[in-house]
Structure formats: structure tokens, C-alpha cells
Design a protein that fits this description.
Length: 84
Amino acid sequence: KWYGVILEVSADKLGLPETGIMDVLNVKSDPLLIGSLRGQDGYFPAYHMNKTHWNSIILDGSVPDKDIRRMIGESYDLTKGKKK
């Protein structure tokens, strides 16, 4: 399994008015938090993923590095398999 992916995405695919390619990180998020995250700058419904459980974070500096690292950790925790 994977818990994050960095993609180059056309800005219009994220619903942005500008043109060009954006670097984004897709991470899995708690569905209870997704709505509040998407109300903040830099967060969007995940490009090319299940939009109920995944977010795209634009890697342009609008989301602080500490928040990105936290989101990566949360995504890892949400995707890791259960021990048998």
C-alpha cells in the first residue's frame, strides 16, 4: 500500500483559474476533517483519487511544512495494515 504520492497536475484540474502545472501531494485524511481542511488555502479534493478520503495539497508554500509532515504521518497511520 502507499500513503502518499507527489504528482504534477494541471491547475485547471484542481479548479484553479490559472494555467500551468502544480506540484501536489495526495494524502489520505480522516473524512471528519476533510471538509475543514478543504476550507483552507492549499487543500483540494484529491486529483485522481477517492475524494471522500483523500486530499491534494499544493506544494507551493501555502501549506506549512510542519502541517504537510503531520498529514503524511496521518495518511500513513490511516493506510497501514492491521497486525495479524
